[in-house]
Design brief:
Layout (H helix, E strand, L loop, with lengths): L11 E6 L11 H20 L4 E6 L1 H4 L4 H4 L7 E3 L8 H9 L4 E6 L14 H18 L2 E4 L7
Parallel strand pairs: 1-2, 1-4, 2-3, 4-5
């Protein structure tokens, strides 16, 4: 039986991960439309409810900036990272912890979420990615809600 998560606007934060221009071609058009639609709705609703919203960009010099229609909704510029695992990046983990929120809603383009596709090439890499993700998020949050793509090319 699925666990029901009751979000509390005074405890929640939103983390939009790596919705970047050069990742767009890898997503099936209908799936991309859903990612954009629901990410925009999530960010807009969070802002209306006073819920902090953070965005991240993985190596923006190579992967481009956050997609404009999401970036223009964010309350601050996206946090840049060079690590594969978003929560394992010390700056992002600190920014998330600095919100003081203990429920985190995580959405985005999946790479940079859990586990990272590059890590799955080896069992050791996959296990390390899981460990980094778990340690980083459990330090920052009591509850985490992850989203997932229904389809990936």
């Amino acid at each position: 039986m699925a666990r029901t998560v009751k979000l509390d606007r005074t405890k929640a934060a939103v983390l939009i991960i790596d919705v970047q221009e050069r990742l767009v071609p890898a997503i099936e058009p209908a799936a991309l439309a859903r990612v954009l639609k629901y990410s925009k709705a999530l960010v807009g609703t969070a802002k209306e409810m006073g819920i902090p919203v953070l965005g991240t960009e993985q190596y923006p010099k190579g992967l481009g900036p956050m997609v404009k229609e999401i970036a223009e909704l964010l309350p601050a510029p996206s946090l840049q990272k060079m690590t594969f695992s978003c929560p394992a990046d010390a700056g992002i983990a600190k920014a998330l912890a600095d919100t003081g929120r203990k429920q985190v809603i995580v959405a985005g383009m999946e790479e940079g979420l859990f586990p990272h596709g590059v890590s799955s090439a080896s069992e050791k890499g996959l296990e390390e990615e899981r460990r980094l993700f778990y340690v980083a998020l459990t330090r920052a949050a009591d509850e985490v809600l992850l989203t997932a793509a229904a389809y990936r090319r």
